[in-house]
Design brief:
33% helix
Length: 563
Amino acid sequence: MNKPIETVAPTAPAGDAIPPNPSWPATPPAPLGIKPRAPVFRPLKVYAFGPSLGRARGNIRTINVRYEKLAPGPVGERIAVVDYDGSRDCFYDPVDLDDPLIAINGGLDPSESDPHFHQQMVYAVASETLRRIEAAVGRTLHRRSPGHAVPLRLVLYPHAGALTNAKHSIDGKIIFGYFRAEEKATGRTVPGQTIFTCLSHDVVVHEASHVLVSALRPDLTEDRYLDNLDNAAFLEAMCDLTPLLFHFNNREVVLDTIQRTAGVIYRSKMDESDHQGAAPRILAELASNNPLLALSQDFGDALGQASGLRSALAAADPAALERATEPHERGAIMVAAVFDALFSIYQGRTIDLFRIYRAGGGQSQGNDVPEPLANRLCDEVERIANRVFNMCWRALDYCPAGQLVLGDFLRAFITADYEYIRDDPWGLRDAMMQAFRLRGIKPANAPFFSEDTLRWPLVDETRLKSATLELSNDSPGALRAFVEGNACTLGFGAKAKLDIYPLETVRLTAPDDTPQSTSVTQVIETSARAFGVALVFDGAGRLRYAIPSSPADDLKGRRSASY
């Protein structure tokens, strides 16, 4: 006889059981597991070029900035946005980027009419610029003055007032103006429309770069040296190079440019090959500007300059340097030389790819560049642009103290690149030499035009009373004792009064994964002679380079009373 089936009440899983003991706490303990961590990056949307391009390919971009808790503004540890309008004497409501509804969408969507997006954009672009430059130079930047260093902080004013410009100060303040487009405005800009300089990606990077150059090399930006035309031109060149080189990290735009120029990305106009010999009949037939080569297209359009404020390209005219007496104009010659070298390396490193493609029956005409080839070309130019960007900023540590001529930057670049990678497999140093030579930018005090002689000479240790600085001693007194003990050898007078900037340690990793460590500083004589020396120590504290100001004869005729 079968036993009757017993009915058993179901029991809840142990984890869901109600505790039988009423003395247990009413709030259950937190579940075991990994505690959530703050993200490494915060995605934020920006205009890659400016609002006039709208939703054109690559213009709306998401960049990942370092994550930090932000107060409304946004205000972070090193960057603060203060939206005060001096022309209207009012503050605009600050954006809260930590608002969950904003954060979950990767920031606010780009909008020309939303002040909150303006605040987001200047914060994001300045943050990314600071991150990339600090990675290039291998250290956290500080505001330095002789014997003193404080943390660097950028304060951004996106709507500072009615001003056809953006300006910076060495204490970290950057103001962005707004203005009405001129009647001769071109492109997609309507005459009379309001132009916000804070929405130009290139303008934000340019002004932030000025502040960061001043932090790295305050000696080059001292008021007493800014009447040296080449000092002023060099600063403008560095701050134009930075946003222009950033263009090559916008993969979507680079790929589009490669397709539309058949890989010849240094063409100033795109789509020219499809319509040669015939007048354009529709908008699609008009040749458009190459976005990679124009600096601040929006700003230029508003002023009636169809090719942006400035360009990465210029004719190789050695006499142009002697005619250029305005800092931006003179600096543009150095910018063109750097881009000449960049594109020469690009051409040399990609020529085999085109040969292989053509050998297989391909024809690189018009936009007939297959996707695999376009991606390889994009990889190459991005890699080259990043290398050039890094070395341009690292070269600042090897520039003379106080005053320089543009040719000194070439020597600094070659020396910095040699210290980073000895064999130069890309031929970058030679390409830079030839590009500078073609534009009449001559190094000072070099007996020959070759890599060996253009590198700064190593210090002759036998002439020093002490060749080694005790780096473990952080006291400024140790550095001063070293400099004053070797003053005559370094080129200073025995009783000269010296301004000595705090020593900074640079930590990089070479391409072969070898850690590199150097320490750098600058020493300036306070007399009217305006002489200075940049010092570079190796990781053991041995003085490797002592790079003096350019000779007075090289600085003659380079004064600019208008700067």
